[in-house]
Amino acid sequence: MQTTGIDIPQEKIDQFKKDGYFVVESVIPNEHVELLREVCQSAIDETDAEMDRQGTDVMGINHRGKRYFMKAEPNHPRIREFIFSDLMASITRAVFGDEIYYKSDQYVVKFDKTGMKFSWHQDSGYAQARLGDHPEVLSCWCTLDEVNEDNGTVYLLPMSRYGEKKLAEHIVEEGSNDRIGYFGNDPGEPVIAPAGSIAVFSSLTFHRSGANPTGKKRRVYLAQYTASPMPGGHAIDANKLFIKDGQVQPNLY
């Protein structure tokens, strides 16, 4: 299963430089959307089973039947067909240039009528707490369902409105275990898009998401990339060379 690359318009690149994000709609082929959905359900089942084993309904920032944050790769190797696709190569190259590393992945699921909000944060706020200084991370937030303000979509705070591109101090919210780094009044810009779309944003871009009271799952797959390896040699950071000298590397999956 292969995808073809896409051309990222210059206006999107300019938007990323100014505001720290851009959105491309309906670019993921149906075959890959279905693959990502299938692996998502397997990851939910595995997470619930681990909660059963631990005798809990809360595991880190996972809340049973409400909100899930789950890795898929390397336990589900088929997902590499998407991670290392020509589609993702064209997006990451457009932003970061001719050398790209795959860092990690994550499913983010707001589950039925009890889906929880997720507070204002930068992804680098979580990475900084774990390993200190690190390179900028590119997050590709891939929609597996239509996303809108009713079902808990992501809201992105444009850097041009926040005022600077730098890591803020984050505090841990009691109860949710969320890290929060923005306390202003700007509501951000909602991503409203059909399934198969991708919001591309920097790890320094503040974002949040609302609750999902719709009665339907809101599923997103997040693939993350860097222009240089993450430090520390942690297992969570794959640091897999994806693109070298502008060329996708062989034998990635």
Q: Which outline best applies?
A: globular
Query: So what's the CATH class?
Result: Mainly Beta
Count of helices?
Answer: 6
Number of domains: 1
Uncertain stretches of 5 or more adjacent residues: none
At the third CATH level, what is the topology name?
Jelly Rolls
Helix content: 10-25%
SSE class: alpha+beta
What is the CATH H-level superfamily? q2cbj1_9rhob like domain
User: How many β-strand runs?
Assistant: 16
Strand content: 25-35%
- Oligomer state equals single chain
Order of helices and strands: HEHEEEHHEEHEEHEEEEEEEE
Main sheet makeup: 8 strands, antiparallel
CATH architecture: Sandwich
Distance between the termini: 12 Å
Describe this structure in words.
It is a single chain. This protein has helices at 10-19, 30-54, 80-83, 86-96, 123-131, 159-162, and strands at 21-24, 58-59, 62-63, 67-70, 100-110, 118-121, 137-143, 154-156, 171-172, 179-180, 189-190, 198-202, 207-209, 218-226, 240-244, 247-248. It is of the alpha+beta class. The protein has one domain (10-244): q2cbj1_9rhob like domain (Jelly Rolls, Sandwich), CATH 2.60.120.620. Strands 1, 4, 5, 7, 12, 14, 15 and 16 form an 8-stranded antiparallel sheet that branches. The chain has a 4-stranded antiparallel sheet with strand order 6-13-8-11, covered by helices on one side. Strands 2-3 form a two-stranded antiparallel ribbon. It is globular and about 50 Å long. The termini are close together. The relative contact order is 0.23. The mean pLDDT is 89.
